[in-house]
Amino acid sequence: MGIYIQSYQQLLSSRFERKQVSEMYDTVFTCGKLDPDINSPYYPARSDLKIMRVDTIAAILLIKKILAELNLSEDEKKKGCTFCS
Predict the structure, then answer these.
(1) Which of 31, 36, 59, 64 has CB 3.0 to 4.6 Å from 42, enough for a Cys bridge?
(2) What is the dihedral of CA 36, 40, 41, 43, to 10 degrees?
(3) 1-18 burial, b for 16+ CB within 10 Å, e for fewer?
(4) Tens-digit pLDDT profile for the chain (85 aa)?
(5) Backbone φ and ψ of 8, nearest 5°
(6) How many CA atoms, within 13 angstroms, populate the side-chain half-sphere of residue 31?
(7) Rg of the chain in Å (alpha carbons)
(8) How much is the pLDDT for 61?
(9) 51 vs 32, 48, 55, 57, CA distance in Å?
(10) What is the pLDDT of residue 24?
(11) Distance between the two ends of the chain, CA-based, in angstroms?
């Protein structure tokens, strides 16, 4: 039996910064920064944060939230997902 995720969630940038590309041509670009919810029950342990970028943390939070909403049984988690628990 396969598990198919038929929904999605997203975390959009909430802070934006302007960065200079070239002083010679006076060009700039705007980039967005993510702010993952540090109060989420799915937030990684502090020891794991050392090796994670912000986009990785955001992806983990969203994936674990979606998986929690699927209400999988323990057996389904063991068969189809190694990181659900």
Answers:
(1) 64
(2) 20
(3) eeeeeeeeeebeeeeeee
(4) 676 766 777 888 989 999 999 999 999 999 999 999 999 999 999 888 888 999 999 999 988 888 888 887 878 777 765 555 4
(5) -150, 160
(6) 6
(7) 18
(8) 92
(9) 21, 6, 12, 10
(10) 94
(11) 19
Q: What is the pTM of this model?
A: 0.66
> How would you class 36 by CB atoms within 10 Å of its CB: exposed for 0-12, middle for 13-18, buried for 19 or more?
buried
Note the residue count of the chain.
85
Q: Which region holds residue 71: left if phi is over 0, alpha if psi is between -120 and 50, else beta?
A: left
